[in-house]
Structures are given as structure tokens and as C-alpha cells.
């Protein structure tokens, strides 16, 4: 693709064009911080316009340059009125025949209309919001107009409503008007023409300051345009780009801007990883506890577990801190790998902190660890929010080194929690915590090893963003005892069939979950809450023992209900998504999910992972409204076809986006100005490669420059500075 007046890559930086006029005076007038200066430094931006721009987050000169058009209007293709296409954008040149202000017969509101003629036909142009003086001057009889906008039909006549109009100087004709015009996102109080003038002025005065964080050698190696060329082309497109400028299309100039932000983000992750590896860690090697546990396991590890245990062992034996993620589907055996890692830490006189996102999950981890490790002579405690008078005693034991393994939630992050010799931090479902909390827990030891677990299947590109600073181990196989859960999508009219399945399972001595998206019935919706489901099920199954579990219960109440269910004293547990992660009841073989269309695919996959944990065949009914959309049906059918969490996650990302799937702020994913981590997955991968090449070949001066750029960009908004 050619750029008029410039060439591709670094060669273009020496060329002179109208946007760079005034280069010699820029530094004298505005200093080196020109792009970071306030938007009022741009000629034409007064207090009123600056206030309007601020509402859209445009406060600096740089913000103006990155305020990219949402689409482009090609005014070079001028049609005669007889050839206009209804429902599409059209550009016509025609003369005003008549113009008048009228009143609608129906709404009694005034509007302005003008009839224009080009010799092949007539077209009516209308404004329902107008300034009478402006409209009168534009639509003066005899004026030759260039009008653009979508053409629709009103009765027997063709019309353009709120068209974009230019009065043509008949001596010059359409010279200079037949161009590609950028259309910017609407800003109240600032017209499109004003935005274009402001942007052009910003490039003219400050264009010389546009600098990329991507080193010149990397730009050249990857045949990239300069950042300045990419930005200019987005605002002032070359005629040869017309075919690529449909709404939503990604051109080479858009790609260049996206790469800039993705590159800096990947640099941030790699610098963090580099800094962690420079820390002096504790070399931990497996000993008696590790060997004893391995020998006593009543099952064989899967190949994926063996690989994970080996990689964790290599990391822990090294002199630098481990920083590893184990990612695998629900029930693949990640926790077993973490327990073996805990044994290695204890074998070397170190303590282990095991953090879970919920008290129920922490309780379950505590019970599992206690059952397996107490026989090896380890002391294990559960630390939670409301421990009462016993908290002081637990804190004293942990600080004195009497406790080897501490299991808990966010309670472990409090300032008064101190460890004697913290050597390993295990974090379950880390995307639910975020960067800061992980850093706080890690800070309670002298560069301890960190092992992160996630049962949330995250596609590779998204994982690169969420876990980009971690070494990743994937467990893709499942234990032989793990049952495949047969999933069926049914309508609410077929709910009776699902209830029959509940009856059959309970009569066989098994248990069932019934999940609702809400606790109470929501006003204005037809959603059944968990409390209402409880009442309905008790009337349908009067002899069954039916319990209720939800997030608003006190921790002790949740614990009591879960323990009762696990002991088989509750037949059917009605609950909200509080059971999404970690609940382990091998006798539960059936799940019903009410209003399944209200959940994301990955969340439904997590939920159904609560069944199929024992030797019996398991089923999951996704009960969905008959009024669901075709897209909702398509989504749910994915769960019928596959049990592969990574395939499901890919579909979930396509249909819902990463923010809905994970929670953008929690996951640490920033809001990029132009890039989208799903749509632009290929560019994220490319940015990763470029960042790796840069870090590998950078000298100390360049690393310092990159670090400064990272801290300036990400520290305040996304807290990268706290872990760099």
C-alpha cells in the first residue's frame, strides 16, 4: 500500500509534507512535552471546546491524535440523483430549486426542507434540528450543493435527512471537495468540521513530536510504518485506501497504532517477568514429605499432571523465584500438583500460603489438605475474615513457624498477618484477585515461589494478556475416574423432564444441584429466584431433603449447608452461582441450571464441573426460556457438543467478549485506545514476538527508556508499577 508523499517504514521520517510545517519552531514554542501538553495549545481550541472534548476523555494534544475516525465518507464517487441507491450513503451535486420551513401535521414540530435538482431527478433534503439563518444561507435558491448522506424514501419522494452539505464555488467546481472525509465519534458541541480542523492543526504543529516506543531496528525488521505515518493516514487517508475504509475495517495504518499499544503492554509484562527472574529465590528440593505422599497416592497421576509436577519441581529447585501458572479444565487435577509443591516447600523448612477467592473454596482446600498432609506431621490452619478471639492465637502460631500451611481468602492479605519463613504462595483462580493482591501476598515472604491455578479456560491470546508475566503449564488430559457430563438444552416447557431426572437420581441415593441466576425473583423480569425454586421443589418433592445455599449467607451458614450436602444429608441443593468453583461432592450426579441463557458459556461449563466427580454417569440440564434469541440457542448448543473448556472459552469470547468473561479490571486487562484483544489476536501475538526480540537485544539504556515508558503509561491506571 502506498502513502502519497511518504514511503513505508523509517524511510518516511525524512520527508516533508504539510503536516510537518513549522517543525523548526515546535520545540521552542512548546518544549519536549508537546504531545502531553493541554489540548488548548492547539489553535482553535478555546475553553468551550476544551470542556466538550474533556467529556470524551480528550485532554492532551496526544489524545487528539489518537481520537481515530469511526468511518470514512468517500466523496469522490458522485452519483446522479437518478442513480442513487436507497438505504446507502450517496454523494450528489445538485442545484437548489426551492426551500422552506414547514410544520409537521402529526407532531406540530417545525422542520426545514429544500428540493434540489441535477437534471436527472429531484431529491428533498431535510433538517429537524436547524438554525434558520444557517439553513437559509445554505439553501438559497440557485446554490449548487454537494450533499452526502443516506438516501431513504418518504412516500413518492427520495430524501436525505440531516445531510452533510458543502456550497460549491462554481468557478472552482468540485475541485478539492471530492475527497475521503474522516467521520469522528460524535462530541456534543463540536461539529465534524471543527474536529477535522483541530486534528489537522495538531499534526501541523506537533507532528514532529510523534515518537514510537518500538525501536527503529524492530520497526525495520518487521517492515512497519512509522507511528506518525500510521496516525496521519488514519486521519487523512490516501485515495488508494478507499476500498479498505468501510466501517469497522482494519487497515495497515490502524494495525500500526494497535501494535504500538500492544507492544508497550507486552514490554510491561516481559519487564515484570525479567525482574522476577533477577530476584534471589529459595532453592527448594523434594524430600521426605513429597516422597511419602507420592508413594501413598491411591491413583496414578495423568501425563499432564506428571509434566506439571516436573516443571514445578525444576522451578522450585532453581535459585530464582518460581512464577508459574497451571491452567487446566475443571477436575483435571491441578490441586494435587499444588499439594505436592507444598510438600516440597515444607521439606525445606518453608511455609505455604494457599489463597482461594471464596470462603467455601478455602474451606474445601483446607479439608483436602488437612486430610492428606496432617498424617505427614504438618500443622494446617484455615484463616478467614471472622475468626473472633481465636485469630490472635492463629497469627502467633503462623508468625512463630509452628504452622506449615495456611489456607485462606483475602484475610491473609491483612497487615497483621506475618509468616516465619514463607517459601511458596499458591493462588487459586487468580483472575479473581488481580495484580495488586497477588503482589501483597508475595510480599509477605523473601521472594517466595508463586504457583497460580486457574480452572477458567482462557484462550491463548487472552491468557497472554492476563498471565503474560507467568510461565504457563497446561494440563489437557483428565483423570481416568473423571466422568463426562452429558449436557442437554431444554426449554422451560420441558422442565418436567428435567425434574423427572432429579426424582430418578435421588431415588438411586444420589444428589442434585439446582442453580438459579438470582436469589430473589427480580421485579420487571420473568426470572425465577433460588428462594422461589426452593418452594416449588419442596411442593413437587415433599419427601426429599432440599437445602438452600447463596452468597448472602454468613460464612458459618454456608459451611454448615455444604458440609450437610457433602455428608449426604441433603438430596437437592438449590443455590446461586456461589458453587461455581471448587465444590467437590462426588455423589452429586445431576445439575439443573435455570434461565441458562443468562449465563456465559464458560460460567456454565464451570458450574457443570460440580457434577461428574464420582464413578457414576452424570447429567446437566440447561433450562432456557422459549423466548431466547437464535444467538442464545447457538451459544448453549456449544455445551451439548463439547466438554473441552478451551473450545467453549473461544466461543464465549467471540460472543461475549473478554470483559464479560473475566471482568476487565479484575483480570488486569487495560482498555486499549483502538485495539481489541479478541478481534486483533494476531496483532497481540505479533506484539509479543516484537517485545521478546526487543528485550533480548536491548542494552541498559534502552531498557531504562522502555521501563520509563511503561511506568508512565500503565502505573497509575493499571498498577503495573507496583509489581515492576
Protein architecture, described:
The chain has 25 helices and 21 strands. The strands form 4 sheets. It has a 7-stranded parallel β-sheet, sandwiched between helices. Strands 16-21-20-17-19-18 form a 6-stranded parallel β-sheet, with helices on both faces. Helix content is 38%, strand content 18%. Helix 10 packs parallel to helix 11. It is α/β, with parallel strands linked by helices.
Secondary-structure-derived class: alpha/beta
Helix content: 25-40%
Radius of gyration: 32 Å
Largest sheet geometry:
7 strands, parallel
Write down how many β-strands occur, each being a DSSP E stretch of 2 or more residues.
21
C-alpha termini separation:
39 Å
The CATH topology name of the largest domain reads Rossmann fold
Backbone shape: globular
Poorly predicted regions are: 1-29, 659-667, 716-724
Q: What is the mean pLDDT?
A: 82
Widest sheet, order of strands: 11-12-10-13-14-9-15
CATH architecture of the largest domain: 3-Layer(aba) Sandwich
Beta fraction: 15-25%
Number of helices: 25
> Can you tell me the number of structural domains?
5
CATH H-tier superfamily of the largest domain: P-loop containing nucleotide triphosphate hydrolases
- CATH class placement of the largest domain: Alpha Beta
List strands and helices in order, with pairings.
Elements (H helix, E strand, L loop, with lengths): L22 H8 L16 H8 L6 H5 L5 E4 L14 E15 L6 E8 L4 E6 L4 H7 L5 E11 L2 E5 L2 E4 L12 E4 L8 H15 L9 H6 L5 H9 L16 H27 L9 H9 L6 H15 L5 E6 L5 H14 L3 E5 L3 H15 L6 E4 L6 H11 L4 E4 L13 E7 L6 H8 L6 E6 L5 H7 L4 E5 L9 E7 L3 H13 L3 E5 L14 H11 L5 E4 L5 H12 L5 E4 L12 E6 L7 H8 L9 E7 L5 H12 L3 H12 L1 H5 L1 H4 L13 H17 L2 H19 L6
Parallel strand pairs: 4-6, 9-14, 9-15, 10-12, 10-13, 11-12, 13-14, 16-21, 17-19, 17-20, 18-19, 20-21
Antiparallel strand pairs: 1-8, 2-3, 2-5, 3-4, 5-6, 5-7
